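Can anyone check this?
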Amino acid sequence: AVVSTQSGHYGRAKTQRKTPTIIHKHYQISRIRSFYMRKVKFTESNLNEKLTGILAEFPKIEDIHPFYADLMNILYDKDHYKLALGQINMAKHLIGNVAKDYNRLLKFGDSLYRCKQLKRAALGRMCTIMKRQNSSLLYLEQVRQHLGRLPSIDPNTRTLLLFGFPNVGKSSFVNNITRANVEVQPYAFTTKSLYVGHTDYQYLRWQVIDTPGILDKPLEDRNTIEMQAITALAHLRACVVCVLDISEQCGYSLQQQCDLFNNIKPLFANKPLIVALNKIDARRPEDLPQPEKDLLEQTFKKDANVLVIPMSTLTKEGVSEVQNTACDALLAHRIEQKMAGNKVDNILNRLHVAVPKASQEIRQPHIPEGVLAQRAAGYTKPDTIRKLERDLEEELGDDYILDLKKHYDLPNPDDKYDDIPEVWQGHNIADFVDPDIVQKLEELEKEEAMLEEAGVYESEDENLTEEQMEIREKAGLIRKEKAIIRHKHRLNKHRNRTPMSERVIRKKQGVKRARSVSTVAGDVAMEVDSKFQTKKIKPGRDVSGLRDEKQVKAVRILKKRSQIKMNQFGRAGEADRHIAAKLPKHLFSGKRGAGKTQRR
């Protein structure tokens, strides 16, 4: 939203940030006019957007539930609220008219100075209009903050609504049946607004509303705190729980509490009503004097729709009974209202409840034939009962061990407890289990014996003569000698060429640059003989004149230390005389900071 105390500065600052800021008098007059018209239009659209957002976000009293409408009237004064929103709406229209008028005048501006003065006048009038809305904006901001702190109350859901004199135990009852944490203190008007807690009953979610205390006085004399409770009683369709303090520790007599009940009884029309007699831990209903018993009888029990239940929020006696009774009463009341409406007929016409007729035929019990045969044979059920694993566990206690192998059905019962691994040496045992392994092994052995008798496995070397063996050895020696000659030829292949100096090699490389790099590199590597590589390599300039590696390390450390001072000035070395820009353009050009902008 627009900040009320700085709305003018906000509008001008955003206009300068979001629109061009450079204009010169030698520009064409059409360009100058559009430059300043753009600033006026942008400021107007920006303020219009903010004010429209304020008007749209605040609720309209005519469009919300009557409970919230009356609550806003009590807390914020409906007339003041509407007047503030009306002033914001009027300011939006005035800003639009100012922008329209000055844009019309800017179309006839004949110089940069005149266009600039028209722009200043337009922005100034807009800022003046916004400054006049300071009080309205401050009031709406307070309303917005307070609205955000109000509890979320659903007027149409299942609700239990508590009311009574201050300090009679309403907040304690809410804390007992819900997870709400309402403040409880031993003085009146601890609760100054509506508090909401939630509870579950019959798998349904219920909201329980704790209201501020109400005093017995005329409606026009009640304050804002009491009127919140009256508004909730008037508009919410809920089960009303009237909490009475029969011990009179709240500071109000039982007569005053009954008078309050009779005073606001018209608000309970068409709502289920429960009367909870609280603090029975301090004073039981049976211990009341006869006049007070007659008063309770006359006030509550003459009406059959009013249920009176004693309870104590301290000892929690009767708290759940009050909750269950109130919830059941509200559910029954809601069903009665739906049945009395017009919509229920449309639903009942589409429903049909099928009621099966009772059969007159007497059906005899069915006994299987096997059971009848056993009975005829004189079979009797054994008296012994098989023990279950659970019975064994209870009987043995800590000595019980679960034995899963005792029920294995194997040909040899002694094999039940053999240790057979599932995986052995990385292989699954089940993959190698073959019941016909012995038969297959015998067949394989017979086949191998037949192959041996046929001479399949006899070696060819056994049939060679001595002459053939000698020829085979000589052929192996010849192949070995040929391999040695071939290897020597490869080594001496490039030694017959004339060796070239390094200067000739570099010259050839420059002339034949188009050739493949890999070919030239290979030729050079083969042509340069080892006798041309005996030239001593000169040491580098950074290590020349130094005796050993220790002196080299010391010189390098001194070099780094001498470079530190030059690095502070951003220089690459001693010969670096470059002077960097004193005012880099990317840091000192563009939008201006805070200050006068008269010359624009």
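Reply from J.R.: I decoded it. The first helix runs from residue 7 to 18.
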